[in-house]
């Protein structure tokens, strides 16, 4: 597996690169954001390990630039920042995972393998449940052959429901998987997001939806032909 490590702190870079090589990875390293962005654009990598605080372009700028250019290489952010809004910004900018310093290189290696499996298609690129189709690569959704414009969160929620079609998912599961944070269990965040998806699928009307409510529990993506 080929990994790009973009980290300016020499001590951290040394132990990360050494640990990844011991884990069987081929590792390239650079110590500033400008070089990291250029190298990521010119050379294919399986995973990019990207520090947030860098000389030149910072890590979030590098990440946003890659995603804007259509680069879908898996990215794991490394940062000393622990505030919730910083974690949200990184993940919302397109990061696949987030690891706060200090950390064990064994954990980083495990996360690298996890995001690499996802990125190389362990999960299907195109999901289909009845007349609903979701393309993970193009991030496009169609319902009865009509394109549906979803926000990032709506897309991720719909994807998770479709991958678990026929299975009841609790609100807590949806919050933890889609938003990746611990929220107040009384929040209506999931319900609001589901209602928005339903309205977009049905042109503004909440008609019979492929997303079923399971009272007191959560939601389920209905399989075609399944009983309610």
Describe the structure.
The protein is α/β, with parallel strands linked by helices. The chain has 2 domains: 118 residues, Response regulator (Rossmann fold, 3-Layer(aba) Sandwich); 96 residues, Arc Repressor Mutant, subunit A, CATH 1.10.10.10. It is built from 8 helices and 12 strands. It has a 5-stranded parallel β-sheet with strand order 2-1-3-4-5, with helices on both faces. Strands 6-7-8-9 form a 4-stranded antiparallel β-sheet, with helices on one face. A 3-stranded antiparallel β-sheet has the order 10-12-11. The longest helix is centred in the middle third of the chain and has 15 residues. It is elongated, with a radius of gyration of 19 Å. It starts with a strand and ends in a 7-residue tail after the last strand.
What topology emerges from the helices and strands here?
Blueprint: E1 2-6, H1 10-22, E2 26-30, H2 33-42, E3 47-51, H3 59-68, E4 74-79, H4 84-92, E5 97-100, H5 105-119, E6 126-129, E7 132-135, E8 140-143, E9 146-148, H6 152-163, E10 169-170, H7 171-179, H8 189-201, E11 211-214, E12 218-221
Parallel strand pairs: 1-2, 1-3, 3-4, 4-5
Antiparallel strand pairs: 6-7, 7-8, 8-9, 10-12, 11-12
């Amino acid at each position: 597996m080929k990994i790009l490590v973009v980290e300016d702190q020499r001590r951290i870079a040394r132990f990360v690169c050494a640990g990844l090589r011991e884990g069987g990875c081929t590792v390239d390293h650079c110590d500033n954001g400008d070089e990291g962005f250029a190298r990521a654009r010119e050379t294919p990598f399986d995973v990019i390990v990207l520090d947030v605080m860098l000389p030149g372009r910072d890590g979030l700028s590098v990440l946003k630039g890659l995603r804007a250019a259509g680069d879908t290489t898996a990215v794991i952010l490394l940062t000393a920042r622990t505030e919730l809004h910083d974690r949200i910004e990184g993940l919302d900018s397109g990061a696949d995972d987030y690891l706060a310093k200090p950390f064990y290189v064994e954990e980083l290696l495990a996360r690298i393998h996890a995001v690499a499996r996802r990125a190389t298609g362990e999960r299907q690129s195109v999901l289909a449940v009845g007349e609903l189709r979701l393309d993970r690569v193009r991030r496009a959704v169609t319902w009865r052959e009509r394109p549906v414009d979803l926000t990032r969160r709506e897309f991720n929620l719909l994807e998770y429901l479709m991958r678990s079609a026929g299975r009841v998912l609790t609100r807590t599961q949806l919050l933890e998987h889609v938003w990746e944070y611990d929220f107040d269990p009384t929040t209506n965040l999931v319900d609001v997001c589901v209602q928005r998806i339903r309205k977009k699928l049905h042109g503004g009307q909440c008609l019979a939806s492929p997303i079923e409510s399971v009272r007191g529990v959560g939601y389920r993506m209905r399989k075609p032909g399944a009983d309610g």
